[in-house]
Design brief:
The structure is a homodimer of 333-residue chains. Chain A is of the alpha/beta class and 333 residues long. Chain A has 13 helices and 12 strands. Chain A is 45% helix and 15% strand. In chain A, strand 8 (245-248), helix 11 (251-263) and strand 9 form a beta-alpha-beta unit. The structure holds a DNA duplex (30 and 30 nucleotides).
DNA sequence: TCTCAGTCTGTGAACGCTCCCAGATGCTCC
DNA sequence: GGAGCATCTGGGAGCGTTCACAGACTGAGA
């Protein structure tokens, strides 16, 4: 690679000093129109591109943020929702010329790497994904005082880490209400992990609607994976064979529940109605297609990025953002 | 954030000079055991972490690589295969303390951003994903002489950009042969885009087995999306109502084909056998579960990363890697 | 005319690191 | 005992920026 032009070369070509070039580069005040034009021309001629390392060295800003995925390794990304979030984040950040580094935080080694990365000053901000309650990483980040936001609340840290999220509780109410309206009498639920906001709040919404009828016997827990949906459904069927509906807290788990129901000879929705949550891409591929709750994932991602950038720009504290969900009726309920 | 310790502080704490600390940091020769120990201790005491910017400024190495996703925006990530690749890449790179920046290259603006990023020296290497034939970005990268590899060949640049890939052609042969062995007589195919290796080579493999029987009438093209699978299947059915099998070049498109077949009242596999390709997560959720070809995605990703690191480390030219596929029989064929 | 504020420009000093060279020390071998 | 080599250390220079400061120039107002 030929030696790249530096700010010196540009200054020489434009017949001005380094300082003036730097001022043009950073849109500083006090640059005469003539100097400005000369510098612009010299930049174009030389093909100059600023060296971010040199800049970061003095400004202490990096122009990049790191997204931390906290799932255990096998599960990371199993959920297609990640894709939407990542894509959206990259786009929005890109528009501001901020680049996105992705790191995994599935085990202690990973977490240590993340801490070293952030402590090393390589990111201006942190975007937390699927962080579970009690994750030690959160405390570490907090102590470093680096701008951090989460996509979906971090349980127990709602007032510390700003976040954007879908209205999980209300979404669960929407689905549960719908099942009730359809005349279902024995409605069960498969929740997500109880250390995640989606796990907790979707169960709360379910209970809000059913009240005393949401008995222990009708509740099973999964871990968002399809397999866990299958086995949770099997446990429910064994315990309460006469259930006539189940609200599953994610589409992927719902897909698992559908297989179990099919294997058990239950017709969906005739014998058992199934409601999902997410409206992710799997919802349309299941058989029958899944009636589900759409969360505005792209918007959640956009808001998360917006919050982070606001924080990085030093705009003081920011408030969480909750976005509303919508019932999508297909064929499973 | 409290002022971070620098190499000076460590040197002072250890009672040695900057040079010695730097030597310890970089595993240089010629450091006495005593000095080594003192420096190690001082690093631990001060909580020192090297500043990569300062280091990059002099070494011209960044410790990060950029993954470029070349799909148009709407489609990026629709395919669950991306997830596996990204996850694997992050892990393998992380082990070497190399971080992964992800950029989109869906339109010209994006591509320009990528070029600026790379030209600006912010990455040690480039990992190309789903790059289509004739993508101008490839020429630009080539002219910059930055180490670049692709996950899946770049059509027309097979000898320029090293790559790791599954043996698409042989995989397609495996599936086609299987359909023939099952007694299917009129076998159609839905291909991927004909400017991608998967699109081209899976069709070639199909044709290898069927020879003259692979007539134009039995070939339709999709663009990897589920929707395109649906419509391609519809066109095939209209043109050749008596087909009794279809090899679909991706699971996602196969899921689409299944819906169309179901809507048309065809039973799978009784009336029409369906074979997919990828063995991605959707393959298990379809109804019936998809008989498909497994590509060793994680291995492909690992090999891609290995190639890139070898190139970055300057180990001279590297050879493409082709990994073999395997038939997974489920219920759709 | 002088002053003063407002513009505009150039330059030295960081930022935190690696590289390189000069010099010191100790050991082996003749 | 001295030459020669390998081992080890310190410190100056430089990587490409931004920042702060000093100085030069302008024009308005006293």
């Amino acid at each position: 690679m030929a030696k790249r032009p530096t700010i010196h070369d540009v200054a020489a070509a434009a017949g001005v000093s380094r300082g003036t070039v730097s001022r043009v580069l950073n849109d500083d005040r006090y640059v005469s129109p003539a100097a400005h034009a000369a510098v612009r021309r010299a930049i174009a001629e030389t093909g100059y591109i600023v060296n971010r390392n040199a800049r970061s060295l003095v400004t202490q800003r990096t122009g990049s943020v790191v997204m931390v995925l906290s799932e255990p390794h096998e599960k990371v990304f199993e959920d297609p929702n990640y894709s939407t979030t990542i894509r959206t984040a990259i786009r929005r950040l890109g528009e501001r010329d901020v680049s996105l580094v992705i790191m995994l935080a599935g085990d202690d080694g990973d977490r240590e790497r993340v801490v070293r990365y952030v402590r090393g000053g390589h990111a201006d901000g942190v975007l937390l994904m699927s962080t579970h309650a009690g994750d030690p990483l959160v405390d570490e980040l907090e102590s470093m005082r680096i701008p951090a936001v989460a996509c979906g609340a971090v349980i127990g840290k709602e007032n510390v880490i700003p976040y954007a999220a879908a209205d999980d509780r209300e979404g669960a109410r929407q689905m549960t209400r719908y099942l009730v309206e359809q005349g279902r009498r024995k409605i069960a639920t498969i929740t997500g992990p109880m250390d995640t906001p989606g796990g907790i709040q979707r169960l709360e919404g379910f209970a809000d609607v059913l009240g005393r009828k949401a008995s222990r016997k009708l509740i099973e827990h999964g871990d968002w994976t399809q397999l866990s949906g299958e086995s949770a459904m099997a446990r429910l069927l064994e315990r309460t064979p006469d259930l006539d509906a189940v609200f599953v807290a994610s589409d992927l788990m719902a897909a698992g529940a559908l297989s179990t129901l099919r294997a058990a000879g239950r017709r969906v929705p005739d014998d058992v109605a199934v409601g999902g949550f997410d409206d992710s891409s799997v919802a349309a591929t299941t058989h029958p297609p899944l009636t589900t709750i759409r969360q505005p994932l792209a918007e959640v991602a956009e808001e998360t990025v917006r919050l982070l950038l606001a924080l990085v720009d030093g705009g003081g504290p920011v408030d969480p953002v909750i976005l509303s969900t919508r019932l999508i009726v297909r064929e499973s309920a």
